[in-house]
């Protein structure tokens, strides 16, 4: 595995972690998703990176499971529940039929994680959004702030309706970027911004 592939896999693992954490509408306070990626990578290294098929789905599944474990530990630490209580992320594990079934379901999740990664790239790195579009989109769609509150903080202030238009415009650009790049190898995509 070359350095570019290593970085790509770890980046997708990070998106997998964030996907699990955001499934509950919260990112775990004080936790860095890269710490979970490191924990998952170390776990795979202890097993000599062996997998029952393609490595990427395996790596994403390990990262997903470590993210769920981290969330469980955090909830138990807060005292909201014990480690033995049912997991709040039932939708993540509802149809689990064991490690092999989870692994092959992971094959289906690779495409979704890659799309999320492309969307994150479009927002932060591709240079397709203006600074205002990026700030407004992240504030409203990622952080869940109200359009009116975001509009009041802009200079000059704008209405919540205008913020909605900016978010819609940004969303269309992000969707177009994802659609254009979802079948292109990461090494061949050219980043416009940085």
Short structural summary:
By secondary structure, the protein is mostly helical. It contains eight helices and no strands. It has two domains: 1-112, no CATH class; 125-194, no CATH class.
Describe this structure in words.
With 194 residues, the protein is mainly alpha-helical. It folds into two domains: 1-112, no CATH class; 125-194, no CATH class. The protein is 67% helix and 0% strand. It has helices at 3-23, 33-46, 55-78, 90-93, 99-124, 131-142, 147-153, 160-181. Helix 1 (3-23) crosses helix 3 (55-78), helix 3 crosses helix 5 and helix 5 (99-124) crosses helix 8. The radius of gyration is 19 Å and the shape is globular. The protein starts with a helix and ends in a 13-residue tail after the last helix.
| Biggest sheet overview | none
Query: What sequence of helices (H) and strands (E) makes up the elements?
Result: HHHHHHHH
Oligomer: single chain
- What is the 3D shape? globular
Helix content: 55-70%
- CA distance, first residue to last residue: 25 Å
- Output the structural class: mainly alpha
Q: What Rg do the Cα atoms give?
A: 19 Å
């Amino acid at each position: 595995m070359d350095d570019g592939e290593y970085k790509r896999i770890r980046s997708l693992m990070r998106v997998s972690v964030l996907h699990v954490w955001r499934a509950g509408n919260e990112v775990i306070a004080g936790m860095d998703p890269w710490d979970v990626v490191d924990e998952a990578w170390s776990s795979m290294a202890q097993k000599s990176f062996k997998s029952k098929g393609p490595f990427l789905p395996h790596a994403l599944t390990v990262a997903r499971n470590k993210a769920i474990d981290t969330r469980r530990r955090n909830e138990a630490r807060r005292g909201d529940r014990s480690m033995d209580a049912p997991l709040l992320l039932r939708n993540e594990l509802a149809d689990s039929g064991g490690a092999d079934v989870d692994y092959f379901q992971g094959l289906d999740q690779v495409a979704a994680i890659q799309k999320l990664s492309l969307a994150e790239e479009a927002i932060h790195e591709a240079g397709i959004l203006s600074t205002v579009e990026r700030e407004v989109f992240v504030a409203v769609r990622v952080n869940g702030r109200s359009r009116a509150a975001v509009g009041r903080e802009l200079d000059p202030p704008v209405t919540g309706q205008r913020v909605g238009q900016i978010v819609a415009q940004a969303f269309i650009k992000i969707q177009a970027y994802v659609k254009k790049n979802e079948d292109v190898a990461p090494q061949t995509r050219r980043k416009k911004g940085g």
